Amino acid sequence: MTNSFSVLAGTLISLVCFTSIALSQPACVTQNMAVPPGANTTDKAARFFIDTTGLDFKTAPPTRDPSNPNYPRATELPDGTLPPSGAEGNFIIGPTHNPAPETIAKEGVPRGTTKSFTLTSKDSTIYNPGLIRDDVAGCTNSSIMTTVTAPDDKSHMIVTTSHPGIWSRTIDVYVPAQYVRGTEAPFIVVGDGGSNAYKDLATTLDNLIAQRRVPPMIAIQIGNGGQDAQGSQRGREYDAVSGDYAQFVEREVLPLVEKNADVKLTKNPDGRATMGLSSSGVAAFTMAWFYPDLYRRVLAFSPTMVNQQWPHDPSLRGGAWEYHSAWTGPAGPNLISKAGVLTPAEPPGVPLIVAAPAKPIRFWFFGGDQDLFYPNPTIPDGMHDWTLSNALMAKVLAEKGYHYQFLFVRNAKHVDRPTIAQTLPSALEWVWKGYPIP
Question: Which positions carry the signal peptide feature in this UniProt record (predicted)?
Fold first, then answer.
């Protein structure tokens, strides 16, 4: 009896211990894709307003109507068709997205080769050390899904789980069969290298180059630094509205590409393009924005033109949202860092593209009708609607006279893979329009 009681007591103690441990593990918080708790959706004049006009919340993310008055006017195309070659402005495509024939390997077409090498943070000056964010194992972005924002500033996420760390990434270099050793070649820098979204890229380039629709170009896929969003190395690289990533590519990646792949890369900015998806899509634009003397052709799938910049920059509080729109928070003193000290500066208000003379950038991009909508429930800041941000980009680009093509895509989610397979060949051809083809 005593032994039986001891065994039972031990079992109960064990169960209590295991239960306590289980309860101490935070549950995975997944993407919200709905209006965050406590968000302002009623007072447009108040801070951090989220406009839900024309959004169908029966889906997650909500489905957007392209006739939304917040979006620019666009030409709706017959289902399954794309804009005419070289056409500029805004277009609506879908809902059907079949892969373009150029994404399929064809017999008799010369095939390029791909060479790969690895780069680590110890090889870097600009991103050494890297950033690592401590998330719960198996719970992607868990620490930022349960964090808070600064008092009175819903745009300023507090991330305490980020710290210095080590990164390693793969660089894949596509060299077309037509490349002549020793000559300078045009090239495209591709962010988020290795993504499944680009699985057709080499085949597409083989076909387009053979058809003389794009020049024989080098394609450089650069892996990201790891993880995602605020507090991560990937977020630090892609979502910062600065020239740092462009300098990382220029000073630390391209020399190794030339050495490892035995190629010469052109210095002519008209022969240099950037491409990316989501946050690497906004990074592709940022590279050209800060260095139009280095890059002038940009292609992006669901670019993150929203407030993802971290650490919080007091001189550009809305991050990439401020390319096209004013910061949504309260008016007040603006601060910049001078010699490590926060100093009052001119208040923000005029978006970057609106405030600057037009730059020689040619930009192709798309956004889906079910693209991301406030995926993180902890940041109800009025600056996390991906579809709206892309539409507002199209508006300001048109106002400033940029050469651009924007596709609003029906039946498409974030970085929609079927849409990429449908549009990649025509997008590449559009981006490289005007460049001489031998």
Answer: 1-29
